[in-house]
């Protein structure tokens, strides 16, 4: 492959399709390049839990089919990394990073995986993650650690800079150019955090835009999958592919009338005239991180955005929603496991982990707390807490300031403030804003009301195109 000087570093969907269509490279050759890159650099990063053993075969088949097709979609023949809590009906297990699920081979693709395959994407591998999406323990387990996959490290400073979680492996692998694009999942910050920490674009969609079927759950009222990419354009393309109504996931019916092509909103003047609310009470970072954010704010104003200082109403509330839903949702998922998997309930996972404390070394306090709840979705205390979450995050929180100031979006440094839109089911998009003096990536996040993805993409794209703050890591 050295002859044609093709490089996968910072390659985009469009640039690769151009090369594929021109015959400068094949999907098979492209896939080999990514696998070689993973084998060379990932022993330091631990971002990939497993490479798809069928990836090269699939790539070769797609190359043959391409010869017969007059036209292909943007993801045709493109290698994609997905988080290892997303079911694939192939030779890769779906584990959520748990050794208890090491032999969990799904009988069916997740809905979004079907959509990726239908689009011609190559599932290159599964990314390591914070075990059970960072919902196993509160005893100082680092982001990106799983008992099965080990510790994911940040390619911008392995062991030095925070990786972010729980979509840690997706973040590190896409930042390190191990695939063209990646899929993460989020319940509260799990796409936005690793995107910010890895100089990536991350989209946490509106709850209902993307199916949750076939994804190991944390809490159904907040769970969603979303793109993690190196450019806003690639994120918009990928979101359009995975979005859509899934008859097996009732919440997606709310998106039946929504757009699934977001590329029309890639506008260089996307910030012009946009009213954006900034609540500085969320800004409590180190001085050099604040400096990166303040420069981003100045740039937004230069690009025509109207920044308004606001105060989002906030009230402390100790919600049981995630704990309660996790017990219900994980028990439903585990009950369908094959006999090859040693656990079929949360209680059995807890007992299994007790017998493997050598690798499940940070405890499982969250799992144990969840097990004490009844997990009944008709429980009045749970229902009251869910209603309170919606009231405080949406109707008495984000909705109030958005309406009062007639805002197009809210702006946060990094992924700070992610909890409120997560509870409300509202979308957010993170885009690179620069590096600190120590080389740590910092992003900024735009948040809006339900199904405001088009507007958020406009703003993120306008900022990205004017600043070009994405910087690839130097791998060793």
Placed side by side, the strands forming the largest sheet appear as 1-3-2-6-8-7-12-13-11-9-10
The end-to-end distance, rounded to whole angstroms, is 21 Å
List the helices and strands in order. HHEHEHEHEEHEHEEHEHEHHHHEHEEH
Weakly predicted, low-confidence segments:
none
User: What structural class do you assign from the helix and strand content?
Assistant: alpha/beta
From the 3D structure, determine the CATH topology of the domain at 13-259.
Amidase signature (AS) enzymes
Biggest sheet details: 11 strands, mixed
Radius of gyration: 21 Å
Mean pLDDT equals 97
Q: What percentage of residues falls in helices of 4 or more residues?
A: 25-40%
CATH superfamily of the domain at 13-259, by name, is Amidase signature (AS) domain
- CATH class of the domain at 13-259 equals Alpha Beta
% residues in beta strands: 5-15%
Structure description:
- With 476 residues, this protein is α/β, with parallel strands linked by helices.
- The chain has a domain at 13-259: Amidase signature (AS) enzymes.
- Helices cover 36% and strands 13% of the residues.
- The chain contains 15 helices and 13 strands.
- It has helices spanning 13-21, 27-45, 55-66, 111-118, 131-134, 168-175, 192-197, 232-242, 287-302, 321-334, 346-354, 365-371, 380-404, 419-424, 453-467, and strands at residues 48-51, 79-83, 122-127, 145-146, 150-151, 181-186, 201-204, 224-229, 275-278, 306-309, 409-413, 428-435, 441-447.
- It has an eleven-stranded mixed beta sheet with strand order 1-3-2-6-8-7-12-13-11-9-10, with helices on both faces.
- A hairpin with a 5-residue loop joins β12 (428-435) and β13 (441-447).
- α2 runs antiparallel to α3 (55-66).
- The model has no long low-confidence stretch (mean pLDDT 97).
């Amino acid at each position: 492959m050295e002859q044609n000087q093709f490089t996968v570093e910072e390659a985009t969907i469009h640039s690769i399709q151009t090369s594929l269509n021109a015959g400068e490279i094949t999907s098979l050759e492209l896939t080999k390049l990514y696998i070689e890159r993973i084998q060379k650099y990932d022993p330091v990063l631990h971002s990939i839990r497993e490479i798809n053993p069928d990836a090269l075969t699939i790539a070769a088949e797609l190359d043959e089919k391409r010869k017969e097709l007059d036209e292909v979609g943007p993801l045709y023949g493109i290698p994609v990394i997905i988080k290892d809590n997303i079911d694939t009906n192939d030779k890769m297990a779906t584990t959520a990073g748990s050794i208890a699920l090491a032999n969990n081979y799904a009988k069916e693709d997740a809905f979004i995986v079907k959509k990726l395959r239908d689009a011609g994407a190559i599932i290159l591998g599964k990314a390591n993650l914070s075990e059970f999406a960072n919902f196993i323990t509160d005893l100082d387990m680092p982001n990106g650690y799983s008992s099965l996959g080990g510790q994911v490290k940040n390619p911008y400073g392995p062991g030095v800079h925070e990786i972010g979680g729980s979509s840690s492996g997706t973040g590190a692998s896409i930042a390190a150019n191990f695939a063209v694009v990646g899929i993460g999942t989020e319940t509260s910050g799990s796409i936005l955090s690793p995107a910010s920490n890895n100089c990536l674009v991350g989209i946490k969609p509106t709850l209902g835009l993307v199916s949750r079927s076939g994804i190991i759950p944390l809490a159904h009222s907040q769970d969603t999958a979303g793109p993690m990419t190196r450019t806003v354009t690639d994120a918009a393309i990928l979101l359009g592919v995975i979005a859509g109504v899934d008859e097996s996931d009732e919440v997606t019916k709310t998106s039946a009338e929504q757009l699934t092509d977001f590329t029309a909103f890639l506008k260089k003047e996307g910030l012009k005239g946009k009213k954006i609310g900034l609540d500085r009470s969320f800004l409590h970072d180190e001085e050099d991180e604040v400096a990166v954010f303040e420069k981003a704010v100045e740039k937004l104003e230069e690009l025509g955005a109207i920044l308004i200082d606001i105060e989002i109403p906030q009230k402390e509330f100790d919600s049981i929603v995630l704990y309660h839903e996790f017990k219900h949702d994980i028990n439903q998922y585990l009950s369908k496991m094959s006999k090859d998997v040693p656990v079929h309930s949360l209680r059995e996972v807890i007992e299994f982990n007790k017998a493997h404390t050598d690798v499940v070394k940070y405890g499982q306090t969250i799992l144990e707390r969840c097990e004490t709840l009844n997990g009944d979705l008709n429980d009045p205390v749970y229902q009251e807490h869910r209603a309170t979450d919606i009231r405080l995050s949406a109707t008495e929180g984000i909705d109030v300031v958005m309406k009062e100031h007639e805002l197009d979006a809210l702006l946060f440094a990094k992924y700070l403030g992610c909890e409120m839109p997560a509870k409300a089911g509202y979308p957010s998009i993170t885009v690179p804003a620069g590096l600190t003096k120590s080389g740590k990536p910092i992003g900024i996040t735009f948040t809006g009301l339900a199904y405001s993805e088009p507007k958020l993409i406009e703003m993120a794209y306008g900022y990205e195109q004017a600043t070009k703050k994405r910087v690839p890591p130097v791998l060793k």
